[in-house]
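Internal tracking record. Fields below are filled automatically when a chain is submitted to the structure queue. Please do not edit lines marked as system-generated. If the sequence contains nonstandard residues, flag them in the REMARKS field before resubmitting.
Queue: standard
Priority: normal
Entity type: single polypeptide chain
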Amino acid sequence: MFLCRRSLLVALTGLLAHRGPDVATFRGILPLAALCRSPFREGRRSENAPALKKNTMKTKSKKSLDSELKNRTAQHLEDGAETEGKPELPKIDLVKRRRNRSLPTDRLLAMLQKEAPRFWELAEVVGKWVWIQFGEQQPPQITAELSQLGFHWNNRRQVWQHPCGIVTDGVNYDPRRRYGSHFPADHQPA
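SYSTEM-GENERATED OUTPUT FOLLOWS
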């Protein structure tokens, strides 16, 4: 509030000095006063000002709460799903993930072939990046494994992508057409 009043005073002083009192009162005060209005006012309100009514949340009995709509978590728990019985997701080692994201294409493919053969079979090299695409949504354990390996989900293309050390901005064209693509597992001798 102090800053606004001070800027109003500075502006008024400048207008009065350069253009005279008539210009300052008509052109300068009204716009600056409108900018300095604040919903928070200092001091007490006058007695003539209308009182603001505060909306309060009404509490309901437990019986009436059971019949109302619930949020997703409440619905999920009500349907009999238990959080205790679910397997805990593996923790992602962020240092290892960062290291894996910087691997070049050939080293990443060698790691996939050795450590994750099911991902190796699905890996598609697009330019210098490696993409993995599934037909349907994967369980959380698989997404955690891909994330640990350095892949990230591209929602627009619906694929898991690994930048192989070359992080770029998104592009509006299809990288498969521009850079070509191939599946390394198809070219490996049996």
